[in-house]
Design brief:
alpha/beta, Rossmann fold, about 220 residues, five-stranded parallel beta sheet, two-stranded antiparallel sheet
Length: about 220
């Protein structure tokens, strides 16, 4: 069977990251999150990391060239030989075109899942996220609150709001998504590759996963 590149597509806060982690366990392939890769670069403290941090704090998208190279480097590693899950990439037509060439060269068949979520729910969902500064665990004040308010269940550290989860940044990110990323829907739909749209607004992560698995014929 041809290796598959599963592309999870949707606005920030649509649940791509959660579904990617669940699918990683189901498919036993790497979950590649551009957000995680960019945050790791920020943590490195190098010149590029500083540039990326300034862009993300302002709610702006990181230039295509940087993201394309990060993804190409990651998907060329040995653990991606049987397939992988892309979370948060591509976000622009230029990224999608570069990815299409790359996937053909690597022998991958892309499958796109578009999670549709109401923006009002997205803002409430992201604004309620908290993260442990020690272990990186994520919590939701509404769906996955910590046992002790404002503290990590594992480390006991006080939870923080990530810079890119602040409400004004979320609104900037959604505007950038509308402007640059939504045109990808037409691109994917016309590509001839499998393209599925699912409602991610309601239901538990497991219920959304069941819908994803159904269209992927994984049941």
């Amino acid at each position: 069977m041809q290796p598959k590149a599963l592309i999870l597509f949707g606005p920030p806060g649509s649940g791509k990251g959660t579904q990617a982690k669940l699918l990683r366990e189901r498919l036993q392939v790497p979950h590649i999150s551009t957000g995680d890769m960019l945050r790791e670069r920020i943590a490195s403290g190098d010149h590029l990391g500083v540039q990326v941090q300034e862009l993300m704090q302002a709610g702006r998208l990181v230039p295509d060239e940087i993201v394309n190279q990060l993804v190409a480097d990651r998907t060329s590693q040995a653990d991606c030989a049987t397939g992988f899950i892309l979370d948060g990439y591509p976000r622009t037509l230029q990224q999608a075109e570069v990815l299409a060439v790359q996937l053909r060269q690597q022998g991958f068949k892309p499958v796109v899942i578009h999670l549709k979520v109401d923006y009002t729910k997205i803002i409430a969902r992201i604004a309620g996220r908290r993260q442990c500064p020690v272990c990186g665990a994520l919590y939701s004040l509404t769906s996955n609150p910590p046992q002790r308010p404002d503290h990590c269940d594992l480390e006991g550290a006080r939870l923080v709001i990530r810079d890119d989860d602040k409400e004004f940044v979320i609104r900037e990110r959604l505007e950038a998504y509308d402007r640059q990323t939504r045109p990808l829907l037409d691109y994917f739909a016309a590509s001839g590759d499998p393209f599925h749209e699912l409602d991610g607004s309601d239901g538990t992560p497991q219920e959304v996963l069941a819908s994803v698995c159904s269209v992927l014929n994984l049941e």
